[in-house]
Predict the 3D structure of the following.
Amino acid sequence: MFDLLNIFFENLLPIFLAAAAGYVLSWKTDLEARHVSKVLFYIFSPALVFTLIQRYITPEIPLLRMAVITIATMLLVALLVFLIGKALGYSREMTMAMVLPAMLLNTGNMGIPVTLFVFGEEGLAYGTVVTIITVIMSYSAGVIVASLGKADIKTSLLSLVKLPMLYGVLLAVVMYFTGWSLPLPVGRAVDLMADAAIPTMLVLLGMQLQKANLRENIRALFISTSARLVAGPLIMLGLSSLAGMTGLVQQVSILQAGMPGAVTATVLATEYDTNPEFVTAAITIATVLSPFTLTPLIWLLTA
């Protein structure tokens, strides 16, 4: 029991304390979360993914295998929730709102610090790769899911072209393969914006928690939350084992797959008006419950 409490206090409590600052900010001021999400969506997030690719993608990391398994895990979780939603007769908008917080996992503002606390710098390298993959998925597949709540497939696909995140990824990939680098002042400015992304995400998470309506569809919330916190790491365990993944890379991948829903889901749901109240409620519940699933998961992975 002491080990579990120690894991919680050292690895999870700092994350919730940072989010608490956003909660108090939303409670005591009239600052709206959608304004903060705009800054994240258009400035900090593109800078973050660009910087992560530049810093952590190296030839030594099994990038292709990690990408395939991570993407497959996210898609299988999404498919599971989608099929359950359709079977229960939910509307397209409601089904997509259930899928978003189940598919888009919080490997960034929660997963990266937790991975660093649990597995150190070596684990952080693998955790960052998972984060890069999930961020790219969030702003590609996630955008499609969010916009499908009210738009057709063609409109959803065209919306990808407007994403600042896409151009951050493309620029980073081009520079990775060509060996080019940004001019020093530009590079430092991008680093500053990237460093601001995760703290801002935590503040936004707290702001969204303060506004969340937990009286949303309880059954739908249970389905989405269970898929994220329970099915996610189990699917990752199965797929990574089938792929022959072992050791630290597998441990980090499973840990990241057990994270609650990402704030990105709320950002996208707000941007595309796909029942953002429900998405926020689902993320809130998953985040609040995550210590009860992540703490034993960390204990099992490090035992």
User: Anything to note?
Assistant: The chain has a mean pLDDT of 85. The CA atoms of residues 144 and 153 lie 8 Å apart. The longest helix spans residues 111-138. The chain has 13 helices and no strands.
